[in-house]
Each structure stands twice: as structure tokens, then as C-alpha cells.
Amino acid sequence: MPVLALDTSGAVAAAIVADDGAALAQAAVTEPRRQAEELGPMIADLLARAGLGPRDLSRVVVGTGPAPFTGLRVGLVTARTFALAAGLPVAGVCSLDVLAQEAAAPTGTRVLVATDARRREIYWRSYVVDAEGRAIPDGEPSVGTAAAVAAELDLAGTVVVGAGGVLYREELTAAGALVRDAPVTPDPVVLARLAARALADGAELPVQPLYLRRPDAQVPNARKRATA
Known about the structure:
CATH superfamily of the largest domain: ATPase, nucleotide binding domain
CATH topology of the largest domain: Nucleotidyltransferase, domain 5
Mean pLDDT: 92
Order of helices and strands: EEEHEHEHEEEEHEHHEH
Largest sheet: 6 strands, mixed
Shape: globular
Oligomer: single chain
């Protein structure tokens, strides 16, 4: 049965994906400020285009970031709410893993996924492409400046993808990295395929958001009262 896959770590993107990994319907909105208002209607439109109802699906798959708090939360809440209403299980996949797989690099290539974390930082994770073309993570998702990543890793010959790579191209290319202009946002079809492969291998895919740091917008601390 088909799955609904969605990701809001960058753009708002969703797809209905068949068992064989083919997209039955797919859409994306690149304006991040419209995430909350666009995602629900987008899902309804995708189902209509695919000629399906919520209960015709087998699962919901959602990108878990890392990403800034507000945008990522929209996708996670939508996925959980939709799944609960339709009685479907939910699976989570790191959004960086999707971009790494989209890079489609040759066997043995080192890949660095770098997305925009704001505050002049990037969310990043490094990978090595195995003999089957799979991007295998080499470490956990992290956040830091591009300069710090360049100092920590040997980036000579490393393929860099993601909006953070494009944004901080100068620092990364100076360290020997090969920065690509695309992909910059996770493809929900690839997201669904990664989840299907992992589940077939017996992996657990918890829907655990990867925020990595506190929200950009926070409620200020209450003022201290003056004492005599």
C-alpha cells in the first residue's frame, strides 16, 4: 500500500509513494513562512490526485530534521495528527540522510550534508557511499559553523550538498570540498524509499525531532523584583 511522506526541514514537501518507490503524486512549496497554512491542503490535494483516501495508505513517513524548531514542528505535528486520525503508524527519518542519498555519489565518495541552521551555523552530518550506492552515516547530526566543520573534517574531495553548503561555499571549497548547487531540500520520495529500506531491514524509526539546540524565539525571563 502507498505511504504519505512529508518533510518541513527546509521547504514544505510531500508525496504519495507507491510500494515500488514510484511517486503517485508530489508537491513542494519553497517559502518556509507558509509551512503551516500549506501542508494540510497540500496533503488533501495529493490524495485526490492519487485517487486515494487516508485509509488507503499503509504508513506516514516524516523527516525529523535537524531544522529550526517552528518549521520542523509543523511537519511532525501534521504527520502525527494525520496518522492518528487514519489509524496509521508513523516512521521518522533524519532529513540529512535524505539529502545524502539524493547526492547519488559514486562508491567510496565522502558526502557532507550541510543545511542552514541560521545564526551563521549549519546542521551537518558526514557520510560514505557504500558499494550499493547507499549513503552510510559517519557520525551523528551536529550543528556548528562551516569554518569549524572545515577544521574538524578532512574535506578534500568531499561532495557537499544542502543549502548550508551553498550558503557557505567559500569556507568549504577553501578546505577542498566540492560544493554542489543541488539538492538543497529533501525529496519526500527519497524519504519514503529510505524508510521502506530501513523497515525491511528491521530498523526502528522513531519520530524523534532533531532540534539540536534551543528555539530561535524564546520567552524572555521574568524580571527580577528589586529588593530593599
